[in-house]
Amino acid sequence: MGPKRRLTLGSYPQVSLHAARAKASAYIDQARRGESPIEALERVATGRLTVEGLAEKFLTDYVYIKQLRAARKYELAIRTHIVEGVGRVLADMLTRDQVRGLMKKVMVQMPSTGQGKSRPRGGIEAARSVIGVLRKMINWGIRERMLKRTDNPVAGMEDNLPKKRKKERVLSLEEAQIVWHAAGTLGYPFGPLYRLILLTGCRPGEWSRCRRTYIDLKQSLLVIPAQAYKSDHVHVVPLVPFAVQILDHTLTNYAGRQGDFVFSGTDGLSPVSGWTKAQSRMIRAMTAVSGERGVAPWTPHDLRRTVATRIAEQLGVGGEQLIKRVLGHADGSVTAIYNRYGYVKEMREVLERWMEELTGGDLDAASVWPEPEMVPYVIVEPTEVA
């Protein structure tokens, strides 16, 4: 329990005994619900924004207007943790202790309820995300003069979290070859997705959010526009023959009719999701292909790191610039701004050498997908909203 607080009900006879009792009863009920009557009165009296009010303005006037690709991350952090934890606090009165309390609460991982599509909540990475979103939101409120304060109580709070571990998992060539063959047994959409990551070094999200307009099969190119790319610049990826074969087969047999997402469970209207379940299927498929149990843990993003490492082994010292091009890392130079299609020929050559190493040059290695009617993936029709 917190400290006791006194609240004046008014002066008699201006406020009758009956009215005073009604007020007192309402305040007690409010306190029992976990809301401070004093803070509620302060909000009414000052008209200042609560953290929840600021959060809604931040989403509407910043996140959605800028069309941030991380909009979903912002929404989850705000609506799942920030509003629940400190939503009723006046944004101008938010203290560092309250932020620290929120951070500690979010760090406690809560298991899934097992109902519907519920997922585990919280954890260290969730706390890191919440602190980052809250800090940016307060800075935005100050900059837009929605807040009177000039300090940000969230500044530097990440320093109190455990140091983020650097992920360094790189699959061996043998492991990558097993992934390649195992992917051939998964069917659409994740079978081709795993293989395309291996053939291009793209991020899993870049392929899962890929639209038909990004693909040029005649030129054998994937062109991701700046607004859809992490580093906010156009990323051009040469497609090796196997990648073209996979995409041609996918677009011919699986392309949605209602939307243009290439890999989708909603007839193309939205990008595919469900990487966690897909990874479990992949591990089982790897076990079946290799005949060995105990596959060392890895993530879909580790395939990107694996491609970069294998290409580095090909190029040796001095190949860093070309690896950056393949991975699409940001280059802010004036030359890079105008040279969007630069090094495509060289990138294609190293990716084709990697393809040969990965697949052993088997020309039929990419054409193993089940026919559309045999695909073990349910197409979910979108629900109409009244």
Order of helices and strands: HHHHHHHHHEEEHHHHHH
By CATH, the superfamily of the largest domain comes out as Intergrase catalytic core
If you compute it from the alpha carbons, what radius of gyration comes out, rounded to the nearest whole angstrom?
27 Å
Strand order of the largest sheet: 1-2-3
Residues in helices, as a percent range: 40-55%
The count of DSSP E runs of length 2 or more, i.e. the number of strands, is: 3
Specify the CATH class of the largest domain: Mainly Alpha
Q: Number of folding domains?
A: 2
Average pLDDT level: 82
Percentage of residues in strands = under 5%
Which structural category fits the helices and strands?
A: mainly alpha
Description:
The chain folds into two domains: 130 residues, DNA polymerase, domain 1, CATH 1.10.150.130; 202 residues, Intergrase catalytic core (hpI Integrase, Chain A), CATH 1.10.443.10. The chain is built from 15 helices and three strands. A three-stranded antiparallel β-sheet has the order 1-2-3. The longest helix is centred in the middle third of the chain and has 20 residues. The C terminus is likely disordered.
